[in-house]
Amino acid sequence: MQYYTKEEHREHQLEWINKRRKEAVEYLGGKCVNCDKTEDLHFHHTKNKYFNIGSMWSWARDALYREIDKCVLLCKLCHKNIHRSKAEHGTYARYKTGCKCKECNLANRDYTRKIRSKFSK
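The chain above was modelled as a monomer; its predicted structure follows.
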């Protein structure tokens, strides 16, 4: 297929990526394993993660599905909650996942000051 503009080429690429993503979602059951939602689904690795699924859509199908087989589908909220629970309270990592308690705010402040001091030297 010949493309006459960059926009046409990009549009074709996005259609192709969306088609492969839809196939992968259907392959894993098409719904969140925790709450059965079917919208805004994320691939969550449960085994050794070698690659980010989002960067693999153009890879060969067998390589892509080897990585997809290590995943489960989670909706955005369930995925966020799983990763939030891994970070300890009072840390910058927990602050980044949405916790704004006093301890996490202090951790964010300390982290930000540390980073800024590296660049002000």
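The first helix runs from residue 6 to 27.
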